[in-house]
């Protein structure tokens, strides 16, 4: 039996597909394993290259497998797709992952630490609450507009809606007043949670060496600084600053043919909102 040099793993919640290949790329095994079986199976394998798509639970398993002595590589799913040779299924995906990992020019995703993932959760939870607050505010604004109540855009104008509901309570339908106050209570509670998360981010930014250095850059505040430390790979990954700009999506995306070039700016959505607000602060100064 040939020695396994690379194992491609198609991750899942319950049943994993693993594909083992030898040094020449030949198939050694292909099997399905439960979560518990997968952990035991990888523990019994000799240290080798283990490749997975950079998807849900990949960073957790990456850390676990590195502790077993394996060389773990995470591949962006878009870079695996071209290597799927037939209809898409777990076995084909695992084989494609194993093949993609052996390519000399393949790009990989750095495995995140537990601290980085915890920072990322804090950031994304705050972003989720902001979206939920906006959704509730827009719903309340739309409902009250049917009764002739129009206020300017902006979350800071919600207080005007609250004032109107209080002042017109006697002339408005009771069900409208009840529903409006539910919206207002939800918005107030969400504001409180957002403020708590913002404070936690600011506290972390002041205590972390990397974020402290990022805060010295004009236009970079605590939210953006923590987003970079949570989501960006190690700076040693980039040969020059413009490569980091490309990773952020601040450079045009090229789609060209012959002498004709079409470009569009592709900026990371998770960084756009905090960056824009902090850029406005720079202009004010």
TrEMBL record:
Q: Which domain of life is it from?
A: Bacteria
Coiled-coil segments on the chain, per record: none
Residue ranges occupied by any Transposase IS110-like N-terminal domain in the UniProt entry: 7-147
Q: Which residues belong to any copy of the Transposase IS116/IS110/IS902 C-terminal domain?
A: 212-267
Q: Which PANTHER family match?
A: PUTATIVE TRANSPOSASE FOR IS117-RELATED (PTHR33055:SF3), TRANSPOSASE FOR INSERTION SEQUENCE ELEMENT IS1111A (PTHR33055)
Q: Which NCBIfam families match?
A: transpos_IS110
- Name of the molecule in the record: IS110 family transposase
Organism, scientific name: Phaeobacter gallaeciensis
């Amino acid at each position: 039996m040939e020695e396994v040099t690379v194992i491609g793993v198609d991750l899942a919640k319950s049943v994993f597909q693993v594909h083992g290949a030898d040094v020449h790329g030949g198939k050694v095994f292909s099997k399905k394993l439960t979560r518990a079986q997968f952990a035991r199976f990888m523990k019994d394998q000799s240290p080798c290259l283990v490749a997975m798509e950079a998807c849900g639970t990949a960073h957790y398993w990456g850390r676990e497998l590195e502790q077993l002595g394996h060389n773990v590589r995470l591949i962006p799913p878009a870079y695996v797709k071209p290597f799927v040779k037939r209809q898409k299924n777990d076995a084909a995906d695992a084989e494609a992952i194993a093949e993609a990992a052996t390519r000399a020019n393949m790009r990989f995703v750095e495995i995140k630490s537990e601290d980085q993932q915890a920072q990322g959760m804090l950031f994304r939870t705050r972003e989720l609450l902001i979206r939920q607050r906006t959704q509730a505010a827009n719903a309340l604004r739309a409902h009250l507009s049917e009764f002739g109540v129009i206020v300017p855009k902006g979350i800071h104008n919600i207080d005007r809606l609250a004032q109107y509901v209080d002042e017109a309570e006697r002339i408005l339908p009771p069900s409208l007043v009840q529903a409006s106050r539910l919206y207002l209570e939800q918005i107030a509670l969400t504001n409180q949670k957002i403020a708590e998360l913002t404070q936690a981010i600011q506290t972390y930014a002041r205590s972390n060496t990397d974020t402290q250095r990022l805060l010295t850059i004009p236009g970079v505040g605590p939210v953006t600084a923590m987003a970079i430390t949570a989501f960006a790979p190690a700076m040693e990954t980039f040969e020059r600053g413009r490569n980091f700009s490309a990773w952020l999506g601040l450079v045009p995306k090229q789609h060209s043919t012959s002498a004709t070039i079409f470009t569009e700016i592709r900026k990371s959505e998770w960084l756009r909102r905090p960056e824009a607000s902090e850029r406005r602060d720079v202009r004010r100064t």
